[in-house]
Automatic annotation (TrEMBL):
SUPFAM superfamilies: Winged helix' DNA-binding domain. Gene3D superfamilies: Winged helix-like DNA-binding domain superfamily/Winged helix DNA-binding domain (1.10.10.10). InterPro entries: HTH_HxlR, WH-like_DNA-bd_sf, WH_DNA-bd_sf. This is Helix-turn-helix domain-containing protein. Residues 16-114 form the HTH hxlR-type domain. It comes from Streptomyces virens. Signal peptide: none annotated. Keywords: DNA-binding, Transcription, Transcription regulation. It comes from the Bacteria.
Length: 126
């Protein structure tokens, strides 16, 4: 990941590295990549289609970040045309299982969240 904030990210990473990894794992696209790769290895274009609505640039950045953190393995095969497969490492599988649990919880509890939102919005309009 490029540092474009004058080095602040490097300082933050040095002071609290687990927080930065948590950001990577729980980012919008990080969550979806990890959950999708739990199924099987994917080629870039397959993964992009499976996730949906992610730009090529964002998917590339997300995969590079997760690879740097040791969660995703990039396997470039020396064939023509080039073939690159992405899969989870053992560490990535652990993280993905945790994230999938949270994703399942949000799906199961969505009715409660919607009810809470409605109550909140109703109280604020009175």
């Amino acid at each position: 990941m490029a540092v474009s904030d004058g080095g602040r990210r490097s300082e933050a990473e040095a002071l609290c590295p687990h927080r930065l990894v948590l950001e990577h794992v729980t980012s919008r696209w990080g969550v979806l990549v990890l959950i999708q790769l739990l199924e099987r290895p994917y080629r870039f274009s397959e993964l992009r289609r499976a996730i949906g609505r992610v730009s090529e640039k964002m998917l590339t950045q997300t995969l590079q970040t997760l690879e740097r953190d040791g969660l995703v393995h990039r396997d470039a095969k020396p064939v023509i045309p080039p073939r690159v497969d992405y899969s989870l490492t053992a560490l990535g599988r652990e993280a993905a299982e945790q994230v999938r649990g949270l994703a399942l919880w949000t799906r199961q509890r969505m009715d409660d969240v919607l009810a809470a939102r409605q109550a909140y919005d109703g109280a604020r309009t009175r």
